[in-house]
């Protein structure tokens, strides 16, 4: 949105619209000191931590179905659900990590401690692969394979729990911590956060690419001990490097629990639910000095949506407000604090739209991988492409799309729209949703082709036999998913960071991961229901199933989802942010973005 000036009269009531020159001076000094730190020089230290987390996470999860079915001898549907449950939990724990970072520990220490917890999980996981007593014996001949016993599964789940908890502190904080190194309000620096998110996700793509090729190859051909030991060592290295960069970081202190403020606004609005609303928002309670620590980017000003929450900012006789006292926040809150809650609530419909996108993406690590297992994967007579490495085509497509988007598409779109970023994040997400629908539809048609090849070659009853059809038939669906991810996922991540109140950015980034979590759990639910009530998803022989029907079911659900998303995007209200207030001849001049 274009910047413009808005003039409002300043009421006499100091508590209503309080300003403080001393507070402004303190903020200005802090701002100058912060500018001596941060910037592009911090990126290697911050991104290396995220790269190592992704090497560890993806290096196992991409090939996890093979590990569970081949090493622990799990049935296919149980293994698929284990993968999606683990991925879902890893995307849910960021809510806990974000709460700790925003409320108490700050992002730096949350990242550091979480990385150590993740490292502990990787060590246990590596030991479970290295020690024979921690997994069932190999299958011998035609005998029924012995599934892992309770204690062996307990060791696996313990390692996954540590990994999920560690990931919960890294994921919501690294992206927000990295973006905070760029001071958008400094006129000497260009606005770079949208560029940061492009290259942040590019770095993730590179790490996923390495994990999907080098690590997966080591796991399949050298052994799981080395395949898990290498990312464990990388994780240990990342802690050291991240700590070395400490003197360079801009560290913003946590400004108290944003979750408590959200609860206080909700309680105050409920307690005042019976009092009449105020038609003129200038009579709502505002106190810039009180909100200084949670509004360094600028105050949130009043919006017309969710008017029932405005009652939390109405001053009544019972509030007994004095200029020298802080209000009882369980009865009275500032407009800024009310708008913090409104901003979060306005984001939730857009958050929900990302669930089915994540559900579709989850199939790349489960059923798409099993499709690849049955197809011809020889690149040469002696080299066989690991099935989990097929995701490399998705990663390459994503990386190429990010580069083209950043270097070409933005410049072209900028001339048309006039926006610095080319298109806004809501438009970027819509493009990703549409491409994902095509990707899932194509996956269904490829499955029809694969089963036809199995039938024609007489291998429909031989799940262990290789069907004479090239695994490269899966490239279109992987590539389309990669392109969709470059648009939707990065747009989704930027949306949460940009539209969240500044004191809740870790929490907002956690919301991004919880949409992925909900998508993984939705995948588990769909797979369970489809497996129970149909013959589409068999446990052992994929050739006898109807996987294409499952893909087309997902296509239909995504088509309905994009209609829902477009409606939500059309009526979405962007965060109303006002920068520092200047007083000219008794009038407030506020810059609004």
TrEMBL record:
Domain of life: Eukaryota
Annotated region described as Disordered, given as residue ranges: 1-30
Compositionally biased tracts (Polar residues): 1-22
Keywords: Membrane, Transmembrane, Transmembrane helix
Signal peptide segment: none
GO cellular component: membrane
Membrane topology type: Multi-pass membrane protein
Compartment list: Membrane
Main location: membrane
Listed transmembrane segments: 108-134, 154-178, 199-218, 224-249, 383-405, 425-446, 509-529, 549-567
InterPro entries: MFS_trans_sf, POT_fam
GO molecular function list: transmembrane transporter activity
Family: Belongs to the major facilitator superfamily. Proton-dependent oligopeptide transporter (POT/PTR) (TC 2.A.17) family.
Protein name in the entry: Major facilitator superfamily (MFS) profile domain-containing protein
Organism listed in the record: Gossypium raimondii
């Amino acid at each position: 949105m274009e910047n413009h000036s808005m003039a409002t009269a300043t009421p006499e009531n100091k508590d209503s619209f309080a300003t403080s020159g001393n507070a402004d001076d303190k903020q200005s000094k802090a701002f100058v000191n912060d500018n001596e730190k941060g910037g592009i020089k911090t990126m290697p230290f911050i991104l290396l931590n995220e790269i190592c987390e992704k090497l560890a996470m993806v290096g196992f999860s991409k090939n996890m179905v093979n590990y569970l079915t081949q090493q622990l001898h799990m049935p296919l549907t149980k293994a698929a659900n284990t993968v999606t449950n683990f991925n879902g939990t890893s995307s849910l724990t960021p809510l806990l990590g974000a709460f700790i970072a925003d409320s108490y520990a700050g992002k730096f220490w949350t990242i550091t401690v979480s990385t150590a917890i993740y490292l502990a999980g990787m060590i246990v996981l590596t030991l479970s692969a290295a020690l024979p007593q921690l997994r069932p014996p190999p299958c011998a001949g035609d005998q029924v394979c012995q599934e892992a016993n309770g204690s062996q599964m307990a060791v696996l789940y313990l390692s996954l729990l540590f990994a999920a908890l560690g990931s919960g502190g890294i994921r919501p904080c690294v992206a927000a911590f990295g973006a905070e190194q760029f001071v958008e309000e400094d006129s000497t620096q260009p606005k770079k956060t949208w560029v940061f998110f492009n290259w942040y996700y590019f770095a993730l793509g590179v790490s996923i690419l390495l994990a999907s090729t080098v690590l997966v190859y080591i796991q399949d051909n050298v052994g799981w001990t080395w395949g898990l030991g290498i990312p464990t060592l990388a994780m240990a290295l990342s802690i050291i490097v991240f700590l070395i960069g400490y003197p360079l970081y801009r560290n913003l202190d946590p400004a108290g629990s944003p979750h408590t403020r959200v609860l206080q606004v909700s309680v105050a609005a409920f307690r005042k639910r019976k009092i009449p609303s105020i038609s003129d928002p200038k009579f709502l309670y505002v106190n810039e000095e009180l909100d200084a620590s949670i509004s360094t980017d600028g105050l949130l000003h009043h919006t017309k949506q969710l008017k029932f929450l405005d009652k939390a900012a109405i001053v009544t006789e019972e509030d007994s407000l004095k200029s020298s006292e802080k209000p009882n926040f369980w009865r009275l809150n500032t407009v800024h604090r009310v708008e913090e809650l409104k901003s979060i609530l306005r984001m939730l419909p857009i958050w929900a739209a990302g669930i089915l996108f994540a559900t579709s993406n989850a199939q790349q690590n489960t059923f798409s991988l099993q499709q690849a297992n049955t197809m011809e994967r020889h690149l040469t007579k002696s080299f066989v492409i690991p099935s989990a490495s097929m995701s490399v085509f998705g990663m390459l497509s994503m990386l190429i799309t990010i580069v083209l988007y950043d270097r070409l598409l933005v410049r072209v779109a900028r001339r048309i729209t006039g926006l610095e970023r080319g298109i806004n994040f809501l438009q970027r997400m819509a493009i990703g949703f549409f491409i994902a629908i095509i990707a899932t539809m194509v996956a269904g048609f490829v499955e029809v082709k694969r089963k036809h090849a199995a039938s024609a070659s007489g291998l429909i009853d031989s799940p262990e036999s290789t069907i004479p059809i090239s695994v490269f038939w899966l490239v279109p669906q992987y590539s389309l998913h990669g392109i969709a991810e470059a648009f939707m996922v990065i747009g989704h991540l930027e949306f949460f960071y940009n539209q969240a109140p500044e004191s809740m950015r870790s929490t907002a980034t956690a919301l991004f991961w919880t949409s992925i979590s909900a998508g993984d759990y939705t995948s588990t639910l769909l797979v369970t229901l489809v497996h129970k009530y149909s013959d589409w998803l068999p446990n052992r022989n994929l050739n006898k199933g109807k996987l294409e029907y499952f893909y087309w079911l997902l296509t239909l659900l995504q088509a309905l989802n994009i209609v829902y998303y477009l409606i939500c995007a059309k009526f979405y209200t962007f965060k109303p942010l006002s920068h520092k207030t200047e007083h000219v001849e008794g009038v407030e001049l506020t810059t609004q973005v």
